[in-house]
Amino acid sequence: MRILPALLVSFCLALGAMPALAQPKPAAPITPRPNAPTSFSQLTARLLPTVVQITTSQTLNAPARGNLPNLPEDSPLSELFKNFLGPRGNQPRQVTSLGSGFIIDPSGYIVTNNHVIENGESVTVILSDDTSLPARVIGRDPQTDLALLKVNPAKPLPATRFGDSDKALIGDWVIAIGDPFGIGSTVTAGIVSARNRNINAGPYDDFIQTDAPINRGNSGGPLFNMDGDVIGVNSAIFSPTGGSVGIGFSIPANLARDVIQQLRKFGQARRGWIGVRIQAVTAELAQAMNLPSRQGALISDVTAAGPAARAGLRNGDLVVSFDGKPVTDNRALPHIVANTPIGKTVNVDVLRGGRKLSQRILVARLAEDKPADRALKPAPPAPRPQSRLGQMGLTVSALDSGARTRFKIGGNVQGVVVTAVTPGSRAGEKNLRPGDVIVEVQSQKVTTPEALNGAIEAAAKSGKPVALFLISRAGEVTYVGVRLN
Fold it and tell me: 3.30.1330.60, 2.30.42.10, 1.10.260.40, 3.30.420.40: which CATH number matches 388-483?
């Protein structure tokens, strides 16, 4: 969960003589909204299976030992550094991060935040029934902090759907579901606190603010309305403590839906572009330019030979309408243009010198999204496929006389000796170490690395999530279960 820095704001109110109050005008009629339910239990029972936990792992390079103090071996501080770093402290280590997501298609498409998975070397989705599935990143969009994943389930998954976030009103009830702090699926309730929030997270900020408690780990989880439709993707919180203080922000569903559709179709977001720089209309600018109001987006620069230049737009033009949609301020125009289909010719209305003009403009594609830009970078070489042993983090060898001498293994022990374990790997998490002898896998004796790898492959092909090892260590034998995926 992205956390915004907290601000301390104080208000002073001076009270003076109260003037006589005018008679209030009759209030406009209010469209009835659903009352708060006595319980959210039936709704959440239906929605909980559609929300997933997402774990990502990445390898971090440890600081070089050369950067540490050069202390005598008998120094207490030297012993402290050894205990802190461990015997392999100068090697890379794996770290895991947690987030949330929600299923939008029974075939296994899952929405989450880009910041949940962007640095992950591997991504795993954990379903509501604790089933773990490896996930593939279909596409991600840093500009809106959205990402689309795909898993391959054994059967269709329960899925939710996007609702119309424009219909969400301030004060409407909402519920958030996610996995805060990795403690498991958690449901919280609140209301829509504000709309159209700009938190300076990106060029397309248009957040829904809610007081439904969301915390670290809720990132990528859904914000539901009372119909059970997703109206937002929880993305950030405003907090002085790192925990929820009742100010959370969700990407509106109408923005997320369009981006996710493009990620699914193209693997990336494609946005419209017209080639202008714009700014807000201040009171001083409105007065100096004789503008009737501060509404609109003021063009401060036009890209040479861009769509706007070819359409005849100029510096100083005030854009008040684009493709039939009103441009209320300088934040509205980028949203409208970005969501306009590439190659579409639209009308753009501007005020110029006190006159209203209508120009025709052909919407082009934003350069940052063009495949040609990415093609300038050479594609990385395809990684060599790892064996199951390598995926587990194990390096092994035959238990010959040299290995017996090196690891002080008696002649009565038979099996395959572990020579190295990758820190933070699945085997490392189970405390396997060099010198351990793998005697059996799935109750099958193994005496060669080839037999060991074959037994592990057979266990994986049979659908077993964990391989059962019988380990001999310093004359003691014990069973250890190591995850296969």
Answer: 2.30.42.10
